[in-house]
Amino acid sequence: MSYTLKKEGGFSYIEEGEGQTIIVLHGLMGALSNFDGITSHFSKNGYKVLIPELPLYTLPLIKTNVKHIAKFIKKFMEYKSVDNVIFIGNSLGGHVSLYFAKHNLKNIKAMVLTGSSGLYEKAMGDSYPKRGDYQYIKEKTEAVFYDKKTATKEMVDELFELVNDRSKVLRTLSMARSAIRHNMADDIPNMDVPTCLIWGKQDNVTPPEVAVDFNKLLPDSDLFWIDKCGHAPMMEHPDEFNKILINWLDKRKI
């Protein structure tokens, strides 16, 4: 399903539904369409779903880091006049959620982290994609998922274009270095906010032990596993992801 991309106030974003605000944050290689399952379900069941396009390739190189993406989210929330939000973050999006929480815990009602960076990750597996080699890019994209068919030609084409764009590559590397610098291990024990961890058992970017460590460090978290699933559970198993999250929100009365 495709949604209208709003462009106003210096932001590009999807907005669907009314009610408790959910802000969804995509990853470094992610797209807004990765969250169609979440958008479709929650926007029809008492939630306002906001998915901002993160300025990963438009910020000055010196500001292409986790800190300034979190500042961007703060400005976006102020522009939309929303507070007390639920964050859903995948990969880098989870990391941005954590960094935002470190500085703005009072503005967060709950966090949902899935395949989140912030402790440890392997970027695109074990090496950075090679320019000009389409088959290599295809294999690396497929490796993110348990079911290789999840990696559509459109996804592969987008990544192929990215790794052949020098400006985008520099910003991608800058963001990846920033993610390593901004390790959240010392900060997470202070984040006393209800947190739902939904992880793919076969995630080879942020492996299962990362989820276990998050669960140990976060003071108020619950960990759920999805089998036969890689780094993006909301894409590979959208119905199961939504069911886990709905039950958790109900149980926690959020």
Please provide a written account of the structure.
39% of the residues lie in helices and 18% in strands. It is built from 9 helices and 8 strands. It has helices at 36-42, 66-80, 92-104, 134-142, 153-163, 166-181, 208-217, 233-236, 238-252, and strands at residues 6-8, 11-16, 20-25, 47-52, 85-90, 108-114, 195-200, 221-226. It has an 8-stranded mixed β-sheet with strand order 1-2-4-3-5-6-7-8, with helices on both faces. Helix 2 (66-80) crosses helix 3. The chain is globular and about 50 Å long. The model has no long low-confidence stretch (mean pLDDT 90).
Using brief descriptors, characterize the structure shown:
Rossmann fold; single chain; 9 helices; globular; 18% strand; alpha/beta; 254 residues; eight-stranded mixed beta sheet
CATH architecture assignment name: 3-Layer(aba) Sandwich
Integer count of domains: 1
How large is the share of residues in beta strands?
Answer: 15-25%
* Structural class designation: alpha/beta
In the CATH hierarchy, the third-tier topology is known as Rossmann fold
Contiguous low-pLDDT stretches (5 residues minimum) are none
Total strands: the figure is 8
CATH superfamily: Alpha/Beta hydrolase fold, catalytic domain
Query: Mean of the pLDDT scores?
Result: 90
**Helix proportion:** 25-40%
Taking the sheet with the most strands, its summary is:
8 strands, mixed
Radius of gyration: 17 Å
The secondary-structure element order is EEEHEHEHEHHHEHEHH
Head-to-tail CA distance between termini:
27 Å
What is the CATH domain class? Alpha Beta
* Sheet with the most strands: spatial strand order: 1-2-4-3-5-6-7-8
Please give the count of helices. Answer: 9
What global shape is seen?
Answer: globular
